[in-house]
Amino acid sequence: MAQEGSTQLxxxxxxxxxxxxxxxxxxxxxxxVHAAAEALHRVRRIWVVGTGTSQHAAFLGxxxxxxxxxxxxxxxxxxxxxxxxxxNQADGVxxxxxxxxxxxxxxxxxxxVLAGMQTITITRQGLGMNxxxxxxxxxxxxTYTVSYTTTLLALGMxxxxxGADSVNEDVLELVPGTVSEAIDxxxxxxxxxxxxxxxxxxxxxxxxxxxEGALKIREAARVLAEGYDVEFFxxxxxxxxxxxxxxxxxxxxxxDGLVRGVGTAAAAEGIGVSFLDEPSPxxxxxxxxxxxxxxxxxxxxxxxxxxxxxxVVITGKWDDPELWSIGAPSY
Length: 331
Known about the structure:
By secondary structure, the chain is of the alpha/beta class. It has 14 helices and 9 strands.
């Protein structure tokens, strides 16, 4: 069994400040971002496509591009392939795949290219694809972390190059330092391992980080974890919870107090509640990067406490190559 401090996951988490800094200063990455921005400047709408963790990045990336005044929409890779929105050659597509191997993401990319759409792929280093923004080498841990945060930074750099207001070069330069601070003082140390499930709730963009944090906890620690937009959570999803569950209420972006109100109500019902803020000075979209790192560290700690290996996630019949090849392009 994995011991704390001995996993690739923990090494990857702690590599993030350096990886993010490299993204910001790399001449290669800057050139790739510039080329992508030039290509997307000419399109009518932008579809940001991804699966799983990459879909969470797609939601935040679309919001960053909206901050640049663009009509940008996030959609899952499978939905884009199987139930595609009405698109034409005037549209552009940003495909996110941290491995460069995800079946439906590759099919989405192939469809977009064949349709003559401007197509940008954000992916790992070394794949040899055209029209890419490369982030980091393929991660050795199947609980993906640094490929997610560097993808968010790449999307921020792209939005900045396209004229975003709140996501600009000045605040992008602050990201590596805020991630270092999150690693040094995560603020999640007192969140207990639940007896049954952990529920993460947030408002606005923090709801996306809640879902990403829940996914990391499920993958790394094999703990039942769910992430919710707080309004959705209130409207029925909280009903079966009890003392064997625990809620992580993310208060960053909780401008009207609904997250805190729901957390207070849950505590009054005998459910354990931890409140988690993101103290960085970053604008809300970029603040999701250090916030997510705090949740990654929580997932790594839960994995250590449960003596689970967070580096090997997909096993048994779940790892059947035929299952994972469904939806891949036929070329």
